[in-house]
Amino acid sequence: MHMTEEIDLDVDILERNREEAKKVNDLLKKNQVRSYNVVGAIGSGKTSIIEWFIKESGDVVPGAILGDVSGKDDYNRISSLGVPAVNINTGKECHLDAHIVKHGMEKMPVSNLDYLFFENVGNLVCPADFPLGADARIVVVSVSEGDDVINKHPVIFKNSDIVVINKIDISEAVGSNIEKMIGDAKELNPKLKIFTTSTKTGENMEKLINHLKS
After folding, report:
1. How far is the CA of 191 from the CAs of 40, 55, 158, 161, in angstroms?
2. Strand 162-166 relative to strand 34-40, pairing
Protein backbone atom coordinates (compact mmCIF):
# COMPACT_ATOMS: atom_id res chain seq x y z
CA MET A 1 0.00 0.00 0.00
CA HIS A 2 1.29 3.43 -0.93
CA MET A 3 1.29 6.02 1.82
CA THR A 4 0.38 9.59 0.90
CA GLU A 5 0.87 12.82 2.76
CA GLU A 6 -0.62 16.24 2.08
CA ILE A 7 1.83 19.13 2.15
CA ASP A 8 0.59 22.70 2.24
CA LEU A 9 3.06 24.32 -0.11
CA ASP A 10 1.53 27.78 0.28
CA VAL A 11 2.11 27.83 4.03
CA ASP A 12 5.69 26.61 3.58
CA ILE A 13 6.48 29.24 0.96
CA LEU A 14 4.93 32.06 3.00
CA GLU A 15 6.71 30.99 6.17
CA ARG A 16 10.04 30.83 4.36
CA ASN A 17 9.41 34.31 2.97
CA ARG A 18 8.69 35.65 6.47
CA GLU A 19 11.99 34.19 7.68
CA GLU A 20 13.86 35.88 4.84
CA ALA A 21 11.99 39.16 5.47
CA LYS A 22 13.17 39.15 9.08
CA LYS A 23 16.77 38.76 7.91
CA VAL A 24 16.30 41.74 5.58
CA ASN A 25 14.80 43.87 8.34
CA ASP A 26 17.48 42.87 10.84
CA LEU A 27 20.19 43.95 8.41
CA LEU A 28 18.47 47.27 7.73
CA LYS A 29 17.97 47.97 11.43
CA LYS A 30 21.60 47.08 12.15
CA ASN A 31 22.63 49.77 9.66
CA GLN A 32 19.92 52.22 10.79
CA VAL A 33 18.28 52.31 7.38
CA ARG A 34 14.61 53.28 7.15
CA SER A 35 12.87 51.20 4.46
CA TYR A 36 9.65 51.23 2.47
CA ASN A 37 8.00 48.58 0.30
CA VAL A 38 6.17 50.50 -2.44
CA VAL A 39 3.36 48.60 -4.18
CA GLY A 40 0.80 49.62 -6.79
CA ALA A 41 -0.42 49.03 -10.31
CA ILE A 42 1.63 49.94 -13.37
CA GLY A 43 1.34 53.68 -13.95
CA SER A 44 0.04 54.54 -10.48
CA GLY A 45 3.07 56.70 -9.69
CA LYS A 46 5.38 54.49 -7.60
CA THR A 47 8.57 55.50 -9.39
CA SER A 48 7.55 59.16 -9.49
CA ILE A 49 7.10 59.21 -5.72
CA ILE A 50 10.56 57.73 -5.21
CA GLU A 51 11.95 60.33 -7.62
CA TRP A 52 10.32 63.10 -5.62
CA PHE A 53 11.81 61.77 -2.40
CA ILE A 54 15.28 61.58 -3.91
CA LYS A 55 15.11 65.09 -5.33
CA GLU A 56 13.94 66.48 -1.99
CA SER A 57 16.15 64.27 0.16
CA GLY A 58 18.55 67.00 1.23
CA ASP A 59 21.33 65.60 3.40
CA VAL A 60 19.94 62.07 3.68
CA VAL A 61 21.09 59.28 1.37
CA PRO A 62 18.34 57.19 -0.30
CA GLY A 63 18.63 54.10 -2.44
CA ALA A 64 16.19 51.90 -4.34
CA ILE A 65 15.71 48.31 -5.44
CA LEU A 66 13.39 48.30 -8.44
CA GLY A 67 11.38 45.25 -9.42
CA ASP A 68 9.78 44.65 -12.79
CA VAL A 69 8.88 41.58 -14.80
CA SER A 70 11.35 42.78 -17.44
CA GLY A 71 13.15 45.90 -18.59
CA LYS A 72 15.18 48.64 -16.90
CA ASP A 73 12.94 51.68 -17.40
CA ASP A 74 12.36 52.45 -13.71
CA TYR A 75 15.96 51.61 -12.85
CA ASN A 76 17.20 54.06 -15.49
CA ARG A 77 15.01 56.83 -14.09
CA ILE A 78 16.25 56.35 -10.53
CA SER A 79 19.92 55.66 -11.24
CA SER A 80 20.08 58.81 -13.40
CA LEU A 81 19.53 60.79 -10.20
CA GLY A 82 22.87 59.60 -8.87
CA VAL A 83 21.68 57.35 -6.04
CA PRO A 84 22.44 53.66 -5.45
CA ALA A 85 19.95 51.53 -7.38
CA VAL A 86 19.52 47.87 -8.27
CA ASN A 87 17.32 46.48 -11.04
CA ILE A 88 15.55 43.15 -10.49
CA ASN A 89 13.66 41.40 -13.29
CA THR A 90 11.37 38.69 -11.95
CA GLY A 91 10.58 37.04 -15.29
CA LYS A 92 7.30 35.17 -14.87
CA GLU A 93 6.94 36.07 -11.18
CA CYS A 94 4.38 38.79 -10.44
CA HIS A 95 6.00 40.11 -7.25
CA LEU A 96 9.25 40.56 -5.39
CA ASP A 97 9.94 38.27 -2.47
CA ALA A 98 12.25 38.70 0.51
CA HIS A 99 14.85 36.26 -0.80
CA ILE A 100 15.25 38.18 -4.06
CA VAL A 101 15.42 41.48 -2.19
CA LYS A 102 18.06 40.15 0.21
CA HIS A 103 20.29 39.27 -2.74
CA GLY A 104 19.59 42.64 -4.33
CA MET A 105 20.82 44.34 -1.16
CA GLU A 106 24.18 42.62 -1.58
CA LYS A 107 24.76 45.04 -4.46
CA MET A 108 23.83 48.08 -2.36
CA PRO A 109 26.09 50.13 -0.05
CA VAL A 110 23.62 49.51 2.77
CA SER A 111 25.87 50.89 5.50
CA ASN A 112 25.98 54.26 3.70
CA LEU A 113 22.21 54.60 3.22
CA ASP A 114 19.62 56.40 5.31
CA TYR A 115 16.57 55.21 3.35
CA LEU A 116 15.89 52.28 1.05
CA PHE A 117 12.87 51.83 -1.21
CA PHE A 118 11.72 48.50 -2.59
CA GLU A 119 9.58 49.20 -5.64
CA ASN A 120 7.50 46.10 -6.23
CA VAL A 121 6.22 44.67 -9.50
CA GLY A 122 3.20 46.60 -10.75
CA ASN A 123 0.05 45.01 -9.38
CA LEU A 124 -2.12 45.02 -6.26
CA VAL A 125 -2.68 41.28 -5.86
CA CYS A 126 0.50 39.19 -5.82
CA PRO A 127 2.63 41.33 -3.43
CA ALA A 128 -0.04 41.29 -0.71
CA ASP A 129 1.13 38.08 1.01
CA PHE A 130 4.87 38.64 0.62
CA PRO A 131 6.43 41.10 3.08
CA LEU A 132 9.94 42.12 2.08
CA GLY A 133 11.34 43.15 5.44
CA ALA A 134 10.65 46.85 5.02
CA ASP A 135 9.62 49.01 7.97
CA ALA A 136 6.40 50.01 6.22
CA ARG A 137 4.39 49.21 3.11
CA ILE A 138 3.12 52.03 0.91
CA VAL A 139 0.22 51.37 -1.47
CA VAL A 140 -0.01 53.77 -4.40
CA VAL A 141 -3.25 54.01 -6.38
CA SER A 142 -4.25 56.56 -8.98
CA VAL A 143 -7.67 58.05 -9.58
CA SER A 144 -7.41 56.88 -13.18
CA GLU A 145 -7.79 53.28 -11.92
CA GLY A 146 -11.35 54.11 -10.82
CA ASP A 147 -12.67 55.01 -7.39
CA ASP A 148 -13.58 51.37 -6.75
CA VAL A 149 -9.98 50.16 -7.01
CA ILE A 150 -9.51 50.03 -3.23
CA ASN A 151 -12.62 47.94 -2.59
CA LYS A 152 -11.51 45.52 -5.31
CA HIS A 153 -8.14 44.86 -3.62
CA PRO A 154 -8.89 44.63 0.12
CA VAL A 155 -5.99 42.39 1.20
CA ILE A 156 -3.18 44.76 0.22
CA PHE A 157 -4.83 47.67 2.05
CA LYS A 158 -5.48 45.64 5.19
CA ASN A 159 -1.79 44.72 5.29
CA SER A 160 -0.28 48.15 4.61
CA ASP A 161 0.67 51.27 6.54
CA ILE A 162 0.41 54.18 4.09
CA VAL A 163 -1.91 54.84 1.15
CA VAL A 164 -1.12 57.39 -1.54
CA ILE A 165 -4.04 58.34 -3.77
CA ASN A 166 -2.22 59.89 -6.72
CA LYS A 167 -3.11 61.93 -9.82
CA ILE A 168 -5.76 63.93 -7.97
CA ASP A 169 -5.31 66.69 -10.54
CA ILE A 170 -7.28 64.59 -13.06
CA SER A 171 -9.95 63.20 -10.72
CA GLU A 172 -12.73 65.31 -12.24
CA ALA A 173 -11.70 64.39 -15.79
CA VAL A 174 -11.81 60.67 -15.08
CA GLY A 175 -14.87 60.86 -12.84
CA SER A 176 -13.29 59.46 -9.67
CA ASN A 177 -14.57 60.36 -6.21
CA ILE A 178 -11.54 60.91 -3.99
CA GLU A 179 -13.59 60.99 -0.79
CA LYS A 180 -15.01 57.56 -1.63
CA MET A 181 -11.49 56.22 -2.07
CA ILE A 182 -10.42 57.66 1.27
CA GLY A 183 -13.51 56.24 2.96
CA ASP A 184 -12.99 52.80 1.45
CA ALA A 185 -9.38 52.73 2.64
CA LYS A 186 -10.30 53.79 6.17
CA GLU A 187 -13.05 51.20 6.35
CA LEU A 188 -10.63 48.43 5.37
CA ASN A 189 -7.87 49.64 7.69
CA PRO A 190 -8.55 52.50 10.15
CA LYS A 191 -4.84 52.72 10.99
CA LEU A 192 -3.80 53.70 7.46
CA LYS A 193 -2.08 57.04 6.96
CA ILE A 194 -3.62 58.47 3.78
CA PHE A 195 -2.19 61.07 1.41
CA THR A 196 -3.83 62.53 -1.69
CA THR A 197 -1.19 63.72 -4.13
CA SER A 198 -0.26 64.74 -7.62
CA THR A 199 3.28 63.94 -8.65
CA LYS A 200 2.67 66.08 -11.73
CA THR A 201 1.67 69.32 -9.99
CA GLY A 202 3.41 68.59 -6.69
CA GLU A 203 0.23 68.94 -4.66
CA ASN A 204 0.73 67.49 -1.15
CA MET A 205 4.04 65.91 -2.09
CA GLU A 206 5.87 67.86 0.60
CA LYS A 207 3.51 66.45 3.24
CA LEU A 208 4.13 62.91 2.03
CA ILE A 209 7.90 63.27 1.88
CA ASN A 210 8.06 64.86 5.33
CA HIS A 211 6.05 61.96 6.72
CA LEU A 212 8.37 59.40 5.12
CA LYS A 213 11.39 61.18 6.54
CA SER A 214 9.88 61.34 10.02
Report:
1. 19, 29, 9, 7
2. unpaired
For strands 193-196 and 136-142, give the pairing: unpaired
Distance (Å, rounded) from C-alpha 171 to C-alpha 21? 36
Q: Whole-angstrom Cα distance, residue 95 to residue 118?
A: 11
Q: What is the pTM of this model?
A: 0.92
Contact 78, 64 (CB under 8 A): yes
| Structural domains for the chain | 9-213 (3.40.50.300)
Q: Dihedral, CA atoms, 138, 144, 149, 153, nearest 10 degrees?
A: -50
pLDDT digits (tens, 9 = 90+) for 37-76: 999 999 999 999 999 999 999 999 999 999 999 999 999 9
